[in-house]
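Write out the 3D structure for:
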Amino acid sequence: MLGKIRPAVHSLIDLIRSETPIHVHRLLTTGAGRTFLGFLLLYLLLIQLCRHAFYRDPTSAFFDASRAYDHVYSRQRQQQADDFIKAANSSASQYPHGDPHPTMCLGIATVERSGEQYVRPAFGSLMEGLMEDERKHIFTVVLIGHTDPQQHPIYNETWLENTADKVLTYDTSNATQFDLLVKWEKDKDYRRKAIFDYTYLLETCIHTEAAWIAMIEDDTLAVKGWYTHAMAALDVADSKSTNWLYLRLFFTEQFFGWNSEFWPTYLLSSISILTTVAILLLALRRLRYPTSISNAAILSACFIYTPACILLYFLAGKVSMRPIPTGVHEMPNYGCCAQGMVFSSPVAAKVVDKLKEKESGFVDMILEEWANQEKLTRFAVVPSLLQHIGGHSSKGDDFSSAQPMSVAETIFNFGFELYEQRGERVVHPSTNG
């Protein structure tokens, strides 16, 4: 049997060898063939360029997680923050504090993390680089989120006493509430305790009578000059709407892809492009090139070349192809998460009421549901003024053996890392795109 098959295989190989040069020759000697080969080479080159240019875009097919999460700017910013905390740990250090009636109250709730305590660089990055006059306009409140505050490693650290305006702990005089907090800690009821901590911190900030209240999570890094940019952005938000909920200082781009609910728009746009190409080619043939543009050429352009270009456009990613311009923009969907939000004082009081009504859940999800129901505008600063650096969630470990990164690590703003390492890029909140 094998003796009969082997000669047949050799005959087939000889046939392919003899025919291949003919097919290549035809491709090289015909106009259509040369066009196809030229397009193919250009297309392959474009794919390589996309791999180089769009590896940081989480909505792109060319996204490369092994390179995209490189902390290019964050590494520099964290070093600056660490240097600030190190200097502030000296008992001889003198640091300005916020006025009793500040422009902004800055609230940070923190709990002990396994390993690194992210709150140190978080607080340091918010303070480092502030002008003395700016620092006076900010009243800082750090909530130690433990019924036994000694459990948190930073509680007795010198830098906290030297730099924070108020170190907040739970009120032990309210025995009923305190017992509940002890129970939630014991049961790891993160959803109830997180809501309590957020409202407790908000209420404390409201009592300072600050015009603005910034709620920042303890595992973030702030861009240098964040306060100036945030205040300018708040002015823009106020000028755009009188019915807005918050200004978002952090968002992640990973949910800004070609979302399926917009597929009719994408399909219509693609069809429009194909139709335009067909009309242009037909018009050119009729008016100028009656013999050069064949039906086959038009069909190839409409059903091979143009669709391939459209496909590459979508593969490149929405964040890259349709980037959100620098400025202050409405962001009603997909922003995620609650790493940094600024409320006006009157709105903050309403947020407290809403969270107390819910009692349990995730702050960002509750706020989004409320905003959708009440049609409240939500704004975000682009590029993000904060970066999320937490590798471990304060609501429990979220590592999986099937994934190289934790869920917390993937909550990341890729644009933040593009801030220049020398002379941070200036954000112009007045630019509305």
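The first strand starts at residue 104 and ends at 110.
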